[in-house]
Amino acid sequence: MPWQKFLGLKVPSSQSAFLKRRYSVTTDIRSFQLCSRQYGHFAVRGYAPAHSVQIYYGTLIHQVLDRAHAHYAGLRDPETEGQFPTNQDIENYFDEVDQALRVRGVQSVRSSTQAAERKAALRRLKLFNQIEGPELYPRVRDTEYRLQSDQGDYLLYGTVDVLADSPGWLPGMKGEIWDYKGANRPEPNTEKFHQYEFQMLVYAELYRERNGYYPERAILYFLNELDTAEESQIRPPEALLEVPLDPKRIEVALYIFKSTVSDIEKCRRKDEWPEPQAELLDKNTCDICDIRWNCPAHVGKYPMRYP
Ligand code: SF4
Question: Which atom of ligand 1 lies at the shortest distance from residue 281's CA?
Answer without folding.
Answer: 3
